[in-house]
Amino acid sequence: MDVLVETKTKDNVFVQVGVAVQYRVVTESAYDAWYRLTSPTSQIQAYVFDVIRSTVPRMELDQAFESKDDIAKAVYDQLQNVMKDYGYSIVNTLVTDLAPDSKVKASMNEINAARRLKEAASHQAEADKVRQVKAAEAEAEARYLSGLGVARQRKAIVSGLQASVSEFSGEVEGAKPKDVMDILLLSQYFDTLSSVGANSLILEHDPATVANLQNQVGASFMTSTDMKKKRTDLLA
Questions:
Q1: In terms of C-beta density within 10 A (0-12 exposed, 13-18 middle, 19 or more buried), how is residue 116 classed?
Q2: Residue 18 confidence (pLDDT) above 90
Q3: How far lies 56's CA from each of 11, 20, 99, 108, 194, in Å?
Q4: What is residue 73's predicted lDDT score, i.e. its pLDDT?
Q5: What is the DSSP letter of 21?
């Protein structure tokens, strides 16, 4: 037989509890089952109501959902103790349904959805953080490698210039390192003009440009050296 009981939980939520009871007549007690109890279904239903309404109100809604087996066992124990005196044996009891009000269901679903959205937002923020950190690390590594490449390139250029100056000074009699540097600067200047012309750009050209650049660079080195010397003297 199926019994539907309405009760409320400890947190004041009304629920419908469905209970299925399997019972049979004990052969040896058939006389008691026939003459001592007029309506066994009404008797069983009354005890089911009593057990459900004394058990579920001690539980909160979430606990009631988790304790359906405990509720069914409480119903079984109570019915088994009472109905055996009337010639009936309780085979099994099952809590087949536990349904709160539709508004409560909707609220529970909204709470669940909000919790899931909060967790998703937290995971999304953590993923964004990881992406930003990795991007920053990649950019830092790229800049480091770029700087390392530029440093190696400049070092190779200086080494090449030193080798060229030494080789030229050794093979050409009377040539000084300054003469070689003037020739290299002039070659670089002409290469620059070629690159500018190849890209359809316009650049003011003056034959004295190389000499002016050389004087400016030399003056810059001299100024830097004098400032370092003055700073050293002041500290001393």
A1: exposed
A2: yes
A3: 11, 16, 13, 19, 94
A4: 92
A5: E
Q: State the Cα–Cα distance between residues 201 and 4, nearest whole angstrom.
A: 92
Q: Do the strands 14-25 and 88-100 form a parallel or antiparallel pair, or are they unpaired?
A: antiparallel
- Distance between CA atoms of 116 and 119, rounded to whole angstroms? 5
The DSSP line for 161-224 is: HHHHHHHHHHHSTT--HHHHHHHHHHHHHHHHHHHHHHTT------TTHHHHHHHHHHHHHHHH
Q: What b/e readout covers 154-178, taking b as 16+ CB neighbours within 10 angstroms?
A: eeeeeeeeeeebeebbeeeeeeeee
The per-residue pLDDT for 13 is 86
Instruction: Judge contact between 19 and 95, C-beta under 8 A.
Output: yes
pLDDT digits (tens, 9 = 90+) for 187-220: 776 677 677 666 666 655 565 665 666 666 556 5
Task: Single out the residue of 76, 3, 87 nearest to residue 37, CA to CA.
Answer: 87
Structure tokens at 34: 């026939």
- Residue 92 in contact with residue 17, Cβ under 8 Å? no
CB atoms within 10 A of CB 3: 20
